[in-house]
From TrEMBL:
This is Peptide chain release factor 2. One of its GO terms (cellular component) is cytoplasm. HAMAP family: Rel_fac_2 (MF_00094). Signal peptide: none annotated. It is found in: Cytoplasm. GO terms for molecular function: translation release factor activity, codon specific.
Length: 375
């Protein structure tokens, strides 16, 4: 191996060792053994919610263990790949073998760096699923259209990762796009990962809704919350909520079913309103809407506690700020994060779900003190 390759492999070793120190494969294996014992209990499914929590945790920990173990195996094999390449007597075969090893080294670096970002997600709630709310802002019909573009962008990002997405509610605008949408991303560390997307997103383009085809700036707001679990103890008395039922509607206000199955819950003390029309039954929609309401109440409680600490002098004085990312389609092509300065010149790829670069930059920025801690 050349000195440059040896130095690169040594750097990968240092990075992976840091990851292993945080994730601790031995502790992960011990946790897998514990959860497997619980999952094997014949009485486990007497409590279905607890059983689902146990099996979900088992799946997550197994995935973490497989990932870090696979990285270690690949790194151990990498020097061997170069040694075998050097032993090739045929120059052409040697060149191909070195190229194969180089490709593996580059791929391994990308996977280690990606896993390295996960170790920065150490917040109390980071490992949970994420509730994402998107709302159109200033900009009229262009803003509603932009909100729908963001909804599609996040769903495409989740699909590329194999993550399940449940769209709980979509409020369609009259002409085009959406007024708001609420969905849940089911994936380990979805909240910790997507929380850096919270803030105001800005779109600059030639408006397809303007007869003169003039340039238009529009805005949409993204809110990211952790999914509430039983242990969070967010009590919502029946006297504190008003439940309204109505028929689900699609684009243009068209009714999409013939029964009053959609549910709107208003939390009277705070004025928070959540809706769900995705499920087939009124009961299912009420359960889903209550879950979102509890997530918002939990976030409100945590924010109040953080504000109280800040008044006492604890915590930083940085904030997410209003505008966090610009999507420019005219007069040039660029998407730029205004906090991290990370940018790409292919807006269509980003809007098609290619978000990982922005997410990793945001997580590293936050870990380096770029914003108040979430938790």
């Amino acid at each position: 191996m050349t000195p440059e390759i040896s130095a690169d492999i040594e750097d990968l070793e240092t990075r992976l060792a840091s990851i292993e120190k945080v994730l601790d494969p031995e502790a992960l294996q011990h946790r897998v053994d514990e959860l497997e014992q619980k999952a094997a209990d014949p009485d486990l499914w007497n409590d279905q919610e607890h059983a689902q929590h146990v099996t979900s945790q088992l799946s997550q920990v197994q995935a973490q263990l497989r990932k870090v173990t696979a990285l270690r195996d690949r790194l151990n094999d990498l020097p061997i790949m170069y040694e075998l390449a050097e032993e090739e007597e045929n120059p052409s075969a040697q060149q191909d073998a070195v190229a194969l090893a180089d490709d593996e080294r580059a791929g391994l670096r990308g996977d280690i760096e990606s896993t390295e970002v996960t170790t920065l997600l150490s917040g109390e709630l980071d490992e949970r699923d994420a509730v994402v709310n998107i709302r159109s802002g200033a900009g009229g019909v262009d803003a509603a259209d932009f909100a729908e573009m963001l909804l599609r962008m996040y769903i495409r990002w989740a699909e590329k990762r194999g993550a399940k997405v449940d769209v709980y509610d979509t409020s369609y605008a009259e002409e085009a796009g959406i007024k708001s949408a609420t969905f849940v991303v089911h994936e380990p560390y979805a909240y910790g990962t997507l929380s850096v997307e919270q803030g105001t997103h800005r779109l600059v383009r030639l408006s397809p809704f303007d007869n003169a085809h003039r340039r238009q700036t529009s805005f949409a707001e993204v809110e990211v919350l952790p999914v509430v679990e039983q242990t969070d103890h967010i009590d919502v008395p029946d006297s504190d909520i008003r439940v309204d039922v109505y028929r689900s509607s699609g684009p243009g206000g068209q009714s999409v079913n013939t029964t009053d199955s959609a549910v709107r819950i208003t939390h009277l003390p705070t004025g928070i309103v959540v809706t769900c029309q995705n499920e087939k039954s009124q009961l299912q929609n009420k359960v889903a809407a209550m879950a979102v309401l509890q997530s918002r109440l939990l976030e409100k409680k945590r924010q109040e506690e953080k504000d109280a600490l800040r008044e006492l002098g604890a915590g930083g004085n940085a904030s997410w700020g209003n505008q966090m990312r610009s999507y420019v389609l005219h007069p040039y092509q660029m998407v730029k994060d205004l906090r991290t300065s990370y940018e790409v010149n292919n807006p269509q790829a980003v809007l098609d779900g290619d978000l990982d670069g922005f997410l990793e930059a945001g997580i590293r920025w936050r870990a380096n003190g770029g914003a108040d801690a979430k938790n």
